[in-house]
Amino acid sequence: MFAHDQEIVSHLLNENSNFRRLFDKHDDLKKTVKDVHEGNISVDEFELENMKKEKLQLKDRMSKLIEEYKEH
To answer: Based on CB atoms within 10 Å of each CB, which residue in 7, 33, 37, 38 is the most buried?
Structure first.
Protein backbone atom coordinates (compact mmCIF):
# COMPACT_ATOMS: atom_id res chain seq x y z
CA MET A 1 0.00 0.00 0.00
CA PHE A 2 1.33 3.42 -0.99
CA ALA A 3 4.64 1.92 -2.19
CA HIS A 4 5.32 4.93 -4.40
CA ASP A 5 4.93 7.32 -1.44
CA GLN A 6 6.77 5.27 1.19
CA GLU A 7 8.91 8.19 2.40
CA ILE A 8 5.83 10.36 2.93
CA VAL A 9 3.98 7.51 4.63
CA SER A 10 6.90 6.97 7.00
CA HIS A 11 6.96 10.67 7.83
CA LEU A 12 3.21 10.82 8.42
CA LEU A 13 3.28 7.69 10.57
CA ASN A 14 5.81 9.39 12.84
CA GLU A 15 4.40 12.91 12.78
CA ASN A 16 0.64 12.66 12.31
CA SER A 17 -1.37 10.82 14.97
CA ASN A 18 -4.51 10.83 12.81
CA PHE A 19 -2.66 9.18 9.92
CA ARG A 20 -1.17 6.64 12.34
CA ARG A 21 -4.64 5.82 13.71
CA LEU A 22 -6.05 5.37 10.19
CA PHE A 23 -3.07 3.27 9.15
CA ASP A 24 -3.32 1.00 12.20
CA LYS A 25 -7.08 0.52 11.78
CA HIS A 26 -6.60 -0.25 8.06
CA ASP A 27 -3.88 -2.75 8.90
CA ASP A 28 -6.09 -4.47 11.49
CA LEU A 29 -8.96 -4.75 9.02
CA LYS A 30 -6.63 -6.01 6.30
CA LYS A 31 -5.42 -8.80 8.59
CA THR A 32 -8.96 -9.68 9.65
CA VAL A 33 -10.22 -9.83 6.06
CA LYS A 34 -7.26 -12.04 5.17
CA ASP A 35 -8.04 -14.34 8.10
CA VAL A 36 -11.67 -14.60 6.95
CA HIS A 37 -10.60 -15.52 3.42
CA GLU A 38 -8.19 -18.12 4.78
CA GLY A 39 -10.94 -19.64 6.91
CA ASN A 40 -9.32 -18.73 10.23
CA ILE A 41 -12.24 -16.49 11.25
CA SER A 42 -15.91 -16.96 10.46
CA VAL A 43 -18.10 -13.92 9.77
CA ASP A 44 -21.21 -13.47 7.70
CA GLU A 45 -21.02 -11.90 4.23
CA PHE A 46 -22.66 -8.67 5.39
CA GLU A 47 -20.02 -8.14 8.08
CA LEU A 48 -17.21 -9.03 5.67
CA GLU A 49 -18.49 -6.54 3.11
CA ASN A 50 -18.71 -3.84 5.78
CA MET A 51 -15.10 -4.53 6.81
CA LYS A 52 -13.98 -4.26 3.19
CA LYS A 53 -15.86 -0.98 2.72
CA GLU A 54 -14.39 0.47 5.90
CA LYS A 55 -10.91 -0.61 4.81
CA LEU A 56 -11.36 1.19 1.48
CA GLN A 57 -12.66 4.31 3.22
CA LEU A 58 -9.62 4.34 5.49
CA LYS A 59 -7.31 3.97 2.50
CA ASP A 60 -9.08 6.86 0.76
CA ARG A 61 -8.67 9.05 3.85
CA MET A 62 -4.97 8.19 4.06
CA SER A 63 -4.56 8.94 0.36
CA LYS A 64 -6.12 12.33 0.91
CA LEU A 65 -3.69 13.08 3.75
CA ILE A 66 -0.78 12.03 1.52
CA GLU A 67 -1.98 14.32 -1.26
CA GLU A 68 -2.41 17.21 1.19
CA TYR A 69 1.14 16.62 2.42
CA LYS A 70 2.46 16.71 -1.15
CA GLU A 71 0.74 20.03 -1.77
CA HIS A 72 2.51 21.67 1.15
So the answer is: 33
